[in-house]
Amino acid sequence: MMSTRRSSTYISLRWRLFVGLRRQIGLLMLLLHVVNMVGGQIRYSIPEEMKKGSVIGNVAQDLGLDLKRLRSGRARIVTGESIQYTELKTDKGILVVNERIDREQLCGDVTPCSFSFEVILENPMELHRITILIQDQNDNPPQVLYPVQTGGSLVAEMVPRSADVGYLVTKVVAVDVDCGQNAWLSYKLQKATDRALFEVGLQNGEIRTIRQVTDKDAVKQRLTVIVEDNGQPSRSATVIVNVAVADSFPEVLSEFTDFTHDKEYNDNLTFYLVLALAVVSFLFITCLVVIISVKIYRWRQSRILYHSNLPVIPYYPPRYSDTLGTGTLQHVYNYEVCRTTDSRKSDCKFGRAGSQNVLIMDPSSTGTMQRIQNEKSILDEPDSPLEVS
């Protein structure tokens, strides 16, 4: 009975040993197969922010593969990233950019920045590893951390009037998310209320006094510091530092409160001046356009009348009548004569023409007009037997 148990235990141990050895042989064979599948490795270096579709490299040429092999082996990219930054064009054997690559978003502060993926081919299976190294570009300006730029409140650094030469007023702190020489920063004093009083460290951004502070120095000091990086082309940021030269806080508070109000007043005044200038310019241009339009319209009307062949229709006053050339005068006076048995007591009604200026176009009517004028003079005489009513 004991021998039977021993033999069964011995058999089970041998079986376990056999299964374990078989597993080890299988893993070894798989490892050898994977080693045989790995055909080659390629490394490309490209700048960040390349446009979509830009060529990274010729994979078929660099791996020594035929285009027919890429198509028959159904070559494809396998990557563990959620975003596929590259694409393989099997018809041309080239690798192109599929998505915009931002080095700061991909790697952060890690340098060097790179990502890898595999190109797999089937029948027979091949595995090629490709590594893309991302070069940094100067695509980010410096960011000022201190002093904090606030829109509503006004922050000022206090400097006592007893400050000596080299007194540390404050320090401008800035960073650049780019890497390498693109992240090297330099500080320059662009504008200042008194440039002979302060200086800015070129490398560290420290603002110090360069002479003894006196009582004649203004309380309100305004410094404009520009921060530049070392990229090509360089990018910059501007920071404003307010400095109060005073020994007591109430003096600083009163001075900078007035400074804030003056600044707001100047900003409003500038806005209204610009607005008034724009309105006046608009009105002037509008009036000029209207005047020119009227002039052109009148000139065109005069040209149309000048070149037209329309007949001129004369105007006759209401008391004139046209006899169409049947009488002695073409235009005659209309009058009525009323008589009684006694000619001295006769009444005469004479209708005067609406206008005394008559243009005679027919020379044959001259005598008739003279006769009419003589009759008119007889009627106007006081001894005339006719009395005009």
Explain how this protein is built.
The protein has 6 helices and 21 strands. With 389 residues, the protein is an alpha+beta fold. A 4-stranded mixed sheet has the order 1-7-6-3. Strands 9-16-15-12 form a 4-stranded mixed sheet. Strand 20, helix 6 and strand 21 form a beta-alpha-beta unit. The C terminus is likely disordered.
E-strand count: 21
Largest beta sheet, briefly?
A: 4 strands, mixed
The span between the termini is 177 Å
Helix content: 25-40%
Average pLDDT, rounded to a whole number, is 77
Percent in strands: 25-35%
H/E series, N to C?
HEEHHEEEHEEEEEEEEEEEHEEEEHE
General shape: flat
Low-confidence stretches: 30-36, 327-333, 348-372, 383-389
SS summary, helix count = 6
Physical arrangement of strands within the biggest beta sheet: 1-7-6-3
Structural class: alpha+beta
Radius of gyration: 54 Å
Quick summary of this structure?
The protein is an alpha+beta fold and 389 residues long. It is 32% helix and 28% strand. It contains six helices and 21 strands.
